[in-house]
Design goal:
about 325 residues; alpha/beta; six-stranded parallel sheet; five-stranded antiparallel sheet; 13 strands; about 40% helix; globular
């Protein structure tokens, strides 16, 4: 039968044979010294043996189907101009092994949600990321809520860049509240810009990963791309723009309302944050939590919640997040006794 991305598969009682139609892509697909295949074998409990342009997958039927899905998605990603690295392999495995994964149709492959930027083609690395990308593309206001490392900010910036390149918006505005995580802004050296830039650095990093550095700098200089602290948004109407507020858990309810009411004609907003990492003064209510309560069920607003299972950084980050979540749940349990 024909498979996604130009592969053909055949199956007998205990193995699956996949034939690829472009041998030039196999080195990237399999990885240097077959390291990507080894990652798939370890992650799914199968054995993968390459024979020319064919790959024989041995293992139980469900694991074989998962491996088939992973390889189809990665191969389609390569054919669409993307790159395959360890993170992409882990993401494809995560997609194929999700409890609600439909192995009969592509998930992260060419027919899944893709973000085309100048520097790379970006696809989801978890089911929640897939839902998030769809929401960013189809809703005017999207909340991305969850722990660090889940791609909330990165994907929002990527979608914003994609829409800018497609002329669907005229500019991108990236913002963060300048709230210190245990430090004091006033003690940092330099002028206002030099004091503020460290807080906006993650937004710059995401921007430079989706646009060539020269083009990103040109956009910033021309005003087509604006990176500014939240305080600079007051009194403005942001029309024909993709607006992103990062670290929104560190806003106050007043600041959040101010920001939300900046939305102008033909604009979109993405608001990202982690309610478990609030750096506001003790006792102050987070504007993010307040907005989620007030806007629950409002038409045009989408909320996507990530969990530690969606962390796509180093595997140790996932374990760190889980450990802290377990500790916090334990504390809540002790307090309830």
């Amino acid at each position: 039968m024909s498979a996604t991305g130009g592969t053909k598969t055949a199956e007998n009682a205990d193995s699956l044979v996949i034939a690829f139609d472009d041998n030039r892509l196999l080195t990237e697909l399999f990885g240097a010294n077959d390291r990507h295949l080894a990652r798939i074998e370890q992650g799914l409990g199968v054995l993968a043996t390459s024979r020319g342009n064919k790959l024989v997958i041995t293992g139980d039927a469900h694991a074989r189907n998962q491996a088939d899905r992973v390889l189809k998605d990665l191969y389609a990603h390569l054919k669409s101009g993307g790159e395959v690295n360890a993170g992409e392999v882990d993401g494809a495995i995560r997609m194929a092994t999700a409890p609600d994964a439909d192995l009969a149709k592509p998930q992260g492959g060419a027919s899944g949600p893709r973000i085309q930027t100048k520097r790379r083609v970006i696809g989801p690395r978890s089911q929640t990321q897939s839902t998030y990308i769809d929401a960013l593309m189809n809703h005017e206001l999207v909340f991305g809520i969850g722990p660090a490392g889940t791609g909330k900010t990165y994907l929002a910036v990527a979608v914003a860049v994609s829409m800018l390149l497609q002329k669907r918006v005229d500019r991108i505005i990236l913002s963060r509240p300048a709230v210190e995580a245990g430090e004091r802004l006033g003690f940092l050296p330099g002028d206002l810009k030099e004091k503020i830039d460290p807080y906006l650095r993650p937004l710059y990093d995401a921007l430079y990963d989706t646009l060539p550095g020269e083009q990103a700098m040109k956009g910033i200089e021309s005003g087509e791309i604006e990176v500014a602290p939240l305080a600079f948004m007051r009194g403005r109407t942001l029309a024909n723009a993709f607006v992103i507020l990062d670290e929104a858990q560190n806003t106050t309810p007043v600041q959040m309302k101010m920001f939300l009411t900046r939305l102008g004609e033909n604009s979109r907003m993405a608001i990202t944050g982690d309610p478990s990492q609030i750096d506001l003064p003790l006792g102050a209510k987070s504007g993010l939590k307040d907005a989620l309560e007030v806007l629950d069920g409002v038409e045009g607003v989408a909320t996507v919640r990530f969990s530690d299972a969606d962390v796509v950084r180093h595997p140790l980050v996932t374990r760190v997040v889980k450990a802290y979540n377990n500790r916090d749940r334990g504390l809540l349990g002790d307090g309830a006794k």
